[in-house]
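Consider this one:
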Amino acid sequence: MTKSLINRAQALQELGLYPRACNTLLQAFAIETPDCSPEQIDRFLVSLYPLQKTFSLTQAIGLRSLGDVLRRQGILEQSQAVLQLSWTIAKNTSEESATLLSLGNTERAIGNQIRDRSDYEAITEIIERQSQEAVLAPYQPAFNAYNQAATVASSSPIPRLQAQLNHLKLLLDLQKWWTDQANRRIASWSRFNEFESVEMGKNFLSALERKLSEEELKEQSKIESNLATLAPSRAAIYARINFAQSLIQSKQIDKVEPVLEMALQQARTLEDVRAESYALGYLGKLYDRSQQLDKATKLTQEALILSQQENSFGDAREITYLWQSQLGSLLRKQGDTKRRDRRLMLQLLTPCNLCATI
């Protein structure tokens, strides 16, 4: 019964039905009238701590799912506590790496929350102090969790690789966020001829970029090595696509195409239509970046057709909307906003496609 409820909750989570998934997981732990409020989760945790040594691995997986659902609902403090308990139970098992990965994702969300609560003056002070430590401090628990997840020998390779991918993405996002913040202040200081402050801001950016770039290259090297050893699977394909997105973000465009081409080849070998749609769509995005608009349009159309096929058998609305948006943007760039758009809409809005996507 516990396994069945956990599986059901994971399916609800995949559909984005987070409150229902949360209530289902609490039912798996015999909680009556679950409402998934922070107060109820707190009481639930208090009741669990004395029993943690008796918990099974299945229950640890259930707690991990609960922590993931809580994070997606923004209930971060309770998500952190639930995942820490799940990790305690899952240590030295095949689920340890996946649990640390989830914990790292929650710690990252908490780091974002701390960062976003900082006012303009506090961020300016960090730049003026040239404090790289203050930049990294809110995210240190996330980095620690990702590093631990990547080194658990008893776990399967996929969650270890996902931890490395998330670590790399966090470094890239940090670099972008602080570059934007520093450039805002540099522009302001330049308008008022505060040249010493401008130089200080540039020095901060240069030092931070060096530090983060070193870490990014280390993670990238590990990822490339691990990807080379992965057997073809949907998870491996998605890992390649994830890595390709990070390469695009870091402006290493010359390295992206081989990664996506391998993902596409594996998707076709496995006859995985959804994964093939993702690979084609992101190849289209790559060619859009390099101004090869005709090729980008063709690949995006192919990706869209495949996503619509998936809609006939399941729910692929998210990727259908993604490629519709990308295709519309490509057509607009080519100045084709009427004739081809109208033909495209007629193709998209057939009765069957409407039934699948609405």
Remarks:
- The first helix runs from residue 2 to 14.
- Confidence is low (pLDDT under 50) at residues 349-358.
